[in-house]
Amino acid sequence: MPILEIHDLHTYYGNIHALKGISLSVEQAEIVTLIGANGAGKSTTLKTITGLLRPRQGNVVFEGEDLGQYKAHQIVYKGVAMVPEGRGIFARLTTAENLHMGAYHRKDKAGIAEDLERVFALFPRLKERRRQVGGTLSGGEQQMLATGRALMARPKLLLMDEPSMGLAPILVEGIFETIERINKEGTTILLVEQNAQMALQIAHRGYVIQTGQIVLSESAQNLRENDMVKRAYLGIS
User: How far apart are CA 177 and CA 145, in angstroms?
Assistant: First the structure.
């Protein structure tokens, strides 16, 4: 059974029909990427999964349970965490305080300490900056912090929204290597990413979304070789 299943999801912003009946699934231990143009519905999909937006129709099933009955913070308790677009760190809190905010709902002090060391092992720069205020970190460091904060929730499913956005090219490769490492350590990942080339290199499968509808679903390798994907998203004519 997939860890995540979305069935016939319709989500609106007021009268704007943003998601028009999308369905997708993510298997345990996969990296699945959702690619599409700006405004296609990628971020809306993630926000609907996490309960930040409520669908008018359809449902989101995580580990066999419909998430529609839960509020956003309760969905985190269930094991779903998101690295939001724009990072969304707490600019006035230190790096360490930001990371502890990711574990705000947990009571297992030993486990929290263990996960903090895991994050520091994954991102040694954060350990160096642990007393530094988040708003003074570089863009790359803030992306590390946003990812580390989500990992502190100990998610079974990690949603990542545009993790390479705004980063210097030299940092982008490192971000994708980190995503692969997180996955290999056991976390399932649903990745939204404008850099389709990089996303399809690390993903197992992918979906293409256009104007709120899934138009293509294939293995990542097949999507890399698809003529429409090449032209529209990979810049290959």
Answer: 16
Collapsing DSSP to helix, strand or coil, 211 comes out as: coil
Residue 26 phi/psi, 5-degree rounding, is -135, 125
Task: Answer yes or no: are the C-beta atoms of 79 and 63 closer than 8 Å.
Answer: yes
CA dist 161 → 3, 31, 39, 190 (Å)? 19, 13, 13, 9
Which residue is it, tokens 């860890």? Answer: 3
- pLDDT tens across 159-205, in order? 999 999 888 888 889 999 999 999 999 999 999 998 999 999 999 99
User: Is this model's pTM higher than 0.85 or not?
Assistant: yes
pLDDT, one tens digit per residue, over 9-31 is: 999 999 999 999 999 999 999 99
Of the chain, the end-to-end C-alpha distance in Å amounts to 38
Report yes or no: 201 and 176 within 8 Å, Cβ to Cβ.
yes
The total of other beta-carbon atoms located within 10 Å of residue 159's CB is 25
